[in-house]
Amino acid sequence: MGIKNNDRNEIEEKLELVINKLMNLGCETKDDEELAKKGEAVGFFKRDFGIKEWDWPQGVGLLGLLKIMKYQNNDNYKEFLYNWFKENIKNGLPSRNINTTTPLLTLVELNECYKDPEFEELCLSWADWLMNCLPRTKERGFQHVTSANGDRQGVRLNENEMWIDTIFMTVLFLNKMGQKYHRQDWIDESIHQVLMHIKYLYDKKSGLFYHGWTFNEMNNFGGIFWCRGNSWFTLGILDYIECFKGTMNAGVKEFILDTYKAQANALKKLQAKSGLWHTVLDDKSSYEEVSGSAAITAGILKGIRLGILDDSYLCVADKAIKAILKNIDEDGTVLNVSGGTGMGYDANHYKNILIAPMAYGQSLTILALAEALLHD
């Protein structure tokens, strides 16, 4: 990307700050009674804050640490990750669902170093649970079952609903397990889920993804193109394909990559002047959001690095990286990150989601900055 020395220094300095902040991220909003009263309507889920809880925000955070170790070829955060998993297992895990699968995306790779029987059994039993116990929609899609707000052992079924988040939170893990243990049934199921989600969530006219699909009402809810939802595909789908190490069926691979490229082209056109993207991608009155923008940036940069996207995307990525750097506070806090976002029936739902420091905001920023450094 032609990073100048001054820019490289700033990226490296802020990257270190963001990593340190992630590892020490606390529950900054836990005492905010006003937000708690508004609850889910503004994205207030107490479990989402900080780094200690076992759920998707923290799971994405852990993945950022795992990936930065790969990028930098070191073991700097391996002990932190090991202790995080051991402590959570000791304290007792929450209910199994789509979102609580996310930490395992890191654990399955981390355990290649530790060969810990407890870790291995957890990953194997969870993959089996996904195949045989996770509720399914019509056409056997993974139903987007989530944690119940305020009840660690409870679940919210979201009956007959598929959400774009599922590919990143759950399907990536199942594919990793299938590849690792040579389980073709797990690999095939992961392919089925990716194709199902593209079939029902991808909008051919815009090139973007809707947040969700319901078989009960046979529609895409509010028909909203949510920034972070789209970013889960932009970022995650290349990781998914890469996991096959060249063994993916050529026709399936071409279909998925064509979808990725069409989405990237649509995102290029919707980038705001600042370099970020709006939380409702095609609504300029919605606020610009950093976590989704960072994931989009990381996904685009990886696409360029792998030769999937052409160099016309370099200026898009460069502009985005500069904007992301401006949204990192002096203590490493990534600013303007939206909270957990349930399914919405109109744009206002997304516009009203709270903004607060989140583990995934830190992590997705780490991935974007790390990819930027790889493009020098």
Explain this structure to me?
There is one protein chain. The chain is 55% helix and 5% strand. The chain has 14 helices and six strands. The protein has helices spanning 5-23, 33-38, 56-72, 78-91, 104-114, 117-132, 165-181, 184-201, 227-242, 250-270, 290-305, 314-326, 347-351, 359-374, and strands spanning 146-148, 151-156, 161-163, 212-214, 277-278, 288-289. The strands form three sheets. Strands 1-2 form a two-stranded antiparallel sheet. β1 and β2 form a beta hairpin. The mean pLDDT is 93.
Strand order of the largest sheet: 1-2
Beta-strand content estimate = 5-15%
Rounded to the nearest angstrom, the radius of gyration is 19 Å
| N-to-C series of helices and strands | HHHHHHEEEHHEHHEEHHHH
The major sheet is characterized as: 2 strands, antiparallel
Number of helices: 14
Strand segment count: 6
Q: Quick check: average pLDDT?
A: 93
- The quaternary state of the protein chains shown equals single chain
Low-confidence stretches: none
The N- to C-terminal Cα distance equals 5 Å
Instruction: Using the alpha-carbon principal axes, give the shape.
Output: globular
| Content-based structural category | mainly alpha
> Percentage of helical residues?
40-55%
List keywords for this structure.
6 strands, globular, single chain, two-stranded antiparallel sheet, mainly alpha, two-stranded antiparallel ribbon, 376 residues
Tell me the layout of helices and strands.
Elements: H1 5-23, H2 33-38, H3 56-72, H4 78-91, H5 104-114, H6 117-132, E1 146-148, E2 151-156, E3 161-163, H7 165-181, H8 184-201, E4 212-214, H9 227-242, H10 250-270, E5 277-278, E6 288-289, H11 290-305, H12 314-326, H13 347-351, H14 359-374
Antiparallel strand pairs: 1-2, 3-4, 5-6
Helix pairs in contact: 1-14, 3-5, 3-14, 7-8, 7-9, 9-10, 9-11, 11-12, 11-14, 12-14
